[in-house]
Amino acid sequence: MNRIYMDNAATTAISPEALAAMLPCFGQNFGNASSIHSTGRDARKALEESRRTIASCLSAKPNEIYFTSGGTESDNWAIKGAAFANRKKGNHIITSQIEHHAVLHTCEWLEKQGFEVTYLPVDEFGLVNPADVEAAITDKTILITIMAANNEIGTIQPVAEIGKIAKAHKVLFHCDAVQAVGAIPVNVDDWNVDMLSLSGHKFHGPKGVGALYIRTGSRVDNFMHGGAQERNRRATTENVPAIVGMAAALFHACANLEEKACKLMMMRDRLIEGLLKEIPHTRLNGHAMKRLPNNVNISFRFIEGEALLLRLDLAGIAGSSGSACTSGSLDPSHVLLAIGLPHEIAHGSLRLSLSDTNTEEEVDEVLKVLPQIVKTLRDMSPLYEQYLEENK
Ligand SMILES: *Cc1c(COP(=O)(O)O)cnc(C)c1O
Q1: Going by CA atoms, what residue is nearest to atom 5 of ligand 1?
Q2: How far apart are CA 258 and CA 31, in angstroms?
Q3: pLDDT tier at 102 (50, 70, 90 boundaries)?
Q4: Residue-averaged pLDDT of the chain
């Protein structure tokens, strides 16, 4: 059976460009980038070339890019690093209720260390209101951390507006841009961010590698202590193959950004319109326009998302309910609750996240299979029976 993979917000396949760039680093170019000899210098060259590539994709300077083990580490470093470096100035952090757990759980941990955190609500589309950010700032505020695009519902935040407010109040601004980088244009100056997180495996690079952008002059403590790597700021021997793969993947993603987005949006909108039209008692989660080009998130009343996923999997279609990190737990998604969905509707939600390797034929197949599965599940649902009974 031909499998249809539509779970690209969880992870992506490694692109041929990334793989080709990585292979020599597992062979001849295996050196330690800190070694003096030419094997080491070759690795160093590949490392610094990757740093320049990533910097240019973000309109940053190469010496503002630090390699990490992924989006989670970048978020932890940015938030904890900024919190502890600015502790004398204040102890207040502003974030939103719909951040990734890498941000939310870090903030919750900081609360136990004596910091105070404001978790801003979002509107029904998942948008943070910049006026709310401004109103939450006090003379104790040291950090604002708001994501660029949500991993579950795809909502794109008004990052530049929030950045302007942060700058005017001289508060550090961190942005988890893990879902945005490689998907929409990202420019650290246009956005006025001081720190920005990205992750290789979300844009067809390898897993276990990411980067943190730190604007020159920002007060941020180091996170990993040890050797002198990453200009004394992040110890451990650099994962050169992964870094090189990530840079190649990002270069390719950014070179084709608009063309790719056009193709994705056509497939996305055909899926959304088709599913809303074919299946009654269905709603789109997130914003219709301010939305990642590859994100579909739909709630179906009267069914369980998990049951839907298993049936889709049997039909060869990989999707997700809520976010991959919370699947396995029975709590409904914090993001869907924050946009105001009642528990039972949040439970019946499906995320399909596309990549430009998906095809129109695959979209056709999903539009054919999914309505049948929803119908089968509803026919077995006591809630649906009850609803039909009450609405005769
Ligand atoms: C995937 C993701 C992360 C975590 O990235 P890892 O590299 O898997 O640690 C953080 N934030 C967002 C928005 C994500 O989508």
Answers
A1: 71
A2: 36
A3: very high
A4: 96
At residue 324, does pLDDT exceed 60?
A: no
The answer, yes or no, to whether any atom of ligand 1 lies below 6 A from the CB of 301, is no
Find out whether the beta carbon of 81 lies less than 6 Å from any atom of ligand 1: no
Give residue 29's identity as a one-letter amino acid code.
Answer: N
pLDDT in tens, 223-249: 999 999 999 999 999 999 999 999 999
Cβ of 202 closer than 6 Å to ligand 1, yes or no, is yes
CB 250 within 8 A of CB 182: yes
pLDDT tens string 252-307: 999 989 999 999 999 999 999 999 999 999 999 999 999 999 999 999 999 999 99
Q: How far apart are the first and last CA of the chain?
A: 41
Known catalytic residue at 325: yes
Per-residue model confidence (pLDDT) at position 323:
46
Quote the tokens at residue 220: 């941020």
Q: Amino acid letter at 318?
A: A
- How many CA within 13 A on the CB side of residue 43? 22
Ligand 1 and 182: CB distance under 6 A = no
Q: Which of 12, 69, 74, 151 to mutate to test the pocket of ligand 1 (most atoms within 8 A of CB)?
A: 151
Quick check: 328 pLDDT over 60? no
Q: Which residue is it, tokens 């920002």?
A: 218
Q: Is the pLDDT of residue 215 over 80?
A: yes
Q: Which atom of ligand 1 is nearest to the CA of 325?
A: 1
Q: Is the pLDDT of residue 369 over 70?
A: yes
For a mutational test of ligand 1's pocket, the pick from 179, 197, 246, 335, i.e. the residue with the most ligand atoms closer than 8 A to its C-beta, is: 179
**Cβ neighbours around 256 below 10 Å, total:** 13
Starting from the edge strand earliest in sequence, which strands make up the sheet with 172-176, in order? 65-68, 210-214, 195-199, 172-176, 141-145, 92-96, 116-120
